[in-house]
Write a structure and sequence with these properties.
The protein is 80% helix and 0% strand. By secondary structure, it is an all-alpha fold. It has a single domain, classed as Growth Hormone, Chain: A.
Amino acid sequence: MRTGILEGIPAMIIFMTLGGPYLTGYLLYLGASSVEVGIATAIPALSNVMQLVAALAMQYLTNRKIVLVVFASLHRILWVATGLIPFIFPEDMRVMAYLVMMLIAHICNATGGVVWSSLIADIVPARVRGTYFGVRNALLSTAGSVSLFVSGLVLDHYGEDIGYAFIFVVCAIAAVINVFALMQYPNVEFEKSRESDIVKRLMLPFRDRAFFKTSMFIAIFLFFYGTVVPFFNYLMLDVLSIGYSWVSVITIVFYVAMIIAYYCWGKLNSRYSTRQLMMWALPIIGLSCLAWGLIGWLPALPVLILIHILLGAGLGGYNLLNFTFIIGDTPKADRPVYIGVFTALTGLMTFAGSTAGGVVFDWLTAMPRNAQLYSMTLSIGLVLILMMAIWGSRVFGASRLVPWRRSHRRVFRRFMG
């Protein structure tokens, strides 16, 4: 369990620095359009489809640790290597080269990810999972936030050429440390599925009605989420023209909120079920989208800080609860295929949402500034809230913990006359 924390710190520095706001900034630096930014932000979700293939292949593995070390290491090395693109490729090929390298890297990460999820689930006792992952995620996010803040200062002070060189050098060092730390995991014995037929094993999650219903709801929720939330950084950098230092400060506020959320949701998870807490966490993401409308009446920076506090609280809950859901509410022997099906469904829908969002935001570039800021954020925020209010309580079965559910039908009938 201690190795899980020590290994995660350098990994989180890489993920947050190369995959946070500076992913958008680096793509814009390479000359990417909003469509290409949308595709890049959706690649991690799309590559998660590989987790289904990896989950089925795990039945034939004898050593999970080797597979984890090989594929996780390839991911870190390839993603960090995208920092060499400006030195190797001509300008017209840089964005495409980045997208190809990032796709291969995240396919490797998805393959290693399902192995890691299975391994860590066997390592951490069920009774402390919520607390452990809450503390772990808080510590990892703290390390990532410090790297984000320092990187933002360097970018603003020295410019993009030196700034991105600094970022990639730091991530290269973190990658070396992470690969060494991955080797310290114990090779826990793997309990394989009793179902030998690959098709029947694949169908197990689909026959689990409660699991599949919840997974489909989350996948559809993430489709709408993907159309707008990954573009928050794009809106700040390109539409509002906020500097890197302020974007890094706002992002750190987001991660601080997420750190606190990890701890709080982890504590609550020891008292309430994962499904019940999902009903509380997901609407907060919708509120973060609706909060963009306040920029029309209030100064932008305080509103952006509020938006990212809400987003951090909501995503902190989702990330923690989502993980405890797929490793805690699934049978141990068949857990890999459950993880694979869940990540494939949610990954495909998030990719589709982010790609569609990129197309819409590209179309909105010809529209007035207010249309770019408010049309998608407010519309999708309203959709997410309505999804949770009308459909979510049925899926998660949390009506007894949500006092407004019984009254919202009466309010709706009055509103409709």
